[in-house]
Write a structure and sequence with these properties.
Distance between the termini: 27 Å
Strand content: under 5%
Order of helices and strands: HHHHHHHHHH
Amino acid sequence: MKMFSRQNVFFVWQDLMLQRAVLKIILGVMALLMVAGIFPLGMVTVGKWHSLKDFILLYRYEFFHLPAFLFLLGSALQTNAWVVLRRYRTRREIGLHKALLVIVLAGGVSLWVAAVGGLCTTFAKYIIYPNIQNVHAAFLYVPHSGDKSSFPYFLVMYFFITAIYGLLFIAFIDFGWNRFFAFVAVIILAVLDMFTVHMLPYLFYISERTAPVWTILLLIMMMLVLVYIICLSSSQKNYYVQDDLL
């Protein structure tokens, strides 16, 4: 598939490197806040997690992980730059570029969160609280023996959910929304889930026990539909006269 050609991935990597200062700042802030989660700094952290998954979701996905990702995506999204326009022959290819940017960034953020979370929980287990006997004590990463959930599956869900929200963000912008309003709209959609269908808890915690294969296939289909929408909307844009395509 052309979208995943080596050249396209290289172009996406170039765009990310152009914004590496912002990427380092935001990823660094995420890491610092996650490190704070292993210390008893207040009621927010005390007794809130007993596993790596719980630790990663210590700060709610809707209010911490998703906004940070959208800030990263927004900083890397520079489709009106001449360097981007010179790379591709058609508007559809620019749409594919934006979609691939979302997917690569979502994958990188997922791995970063997993790595920082794993280091924090290991540090808590062996350095901060090495003598705690109760394996379910706060701040101690010893998964329950009866827990059948798989962290790799959780990480896959984290990637798919983050990528889908990122593609929605791009789609809103392509349909003429201001970047700020697109950002707010995506956050509102995620927050509304708390009070309506509760899909995020289902995907993170329940779907592995009920229908893991069908869940993954459904999320892949959603991503493909959003990629198609982005390509379709991009083909209607005039990238050479618009001053700002944010």
